[in-house]
Amino acid sequence: MLQVRTAAAPEHVWEVDYHPNGVTTLNGQPFEWDLAALGNNRYHLLYQGRSYSAQLLEADYTAKTMVLQLNGQRLELQAKDRFDLLLDKLGMSAAVSTKVNELKAPMPGLIVDIRVAVGQTVQKGDPLLVLEAMKMENILKAPGEGTVAAIKVALRDNVTKGQVLIQFS
User: Fold this and answer.
1) Closest to 127 in 3D by CA, of 137, 114, 118, 111
2) Does the 93-168 domain belong in CATH 3.40.50.300?
3) Which of 59, 82, 96, 129 is most exposed, with minimal Cβ within 10 Å?
4) Where do the DSSP E strands lie in the chain?
5) For the whole model, what pTM was predicted?
6) What is the pLDDT of residues 66-102, one digit of tens each?
């Protein structure tokens, strides 16, 4: 199951489910369509008796974002699979800002590794700490760029959800 949002209307969410038997559902309803690849990331789509011209302009498979042109209209899409939705539910979704002030614990757990030092400069995605929670090790990564100003926890510390772990300058 995927959740798909457009940048123009992020409050509007489509739930798309593709089953191995070839059946696709959109918001729980069968979605019957015909798609033909034309080459050069261009496609022809038939849906409910209407014809659509589609072109994939950009795709970032890591960030799960796409930019499509559908009948001349530009659409920016963000997809979330079941794992992304679980991370959101656990409070571990990615932060939006590029500069950060602090890293907080997304859930209660035990600090089992500290991978940075005070004064170290980090970039978005750099591993900072390893938090053991629910019998799983979770690598907490930098949500943006910054310099480590203070590490507020020590190895083997128990932490609570929302507790400040690292401060950045």
Assistant:
1) 114
2) no
3) 96
4) 2-6, 13-18, 24-26, 29-30, 33-39, 42-47, 50-60, 65-70, 73-80, 102-104, 109-114, 121-122, 127-133, 136-141, 146-151, 158-159, 164-168
5) 0.49
6) 889 999 988 888 888 878 778 777 776 654 444 568 9
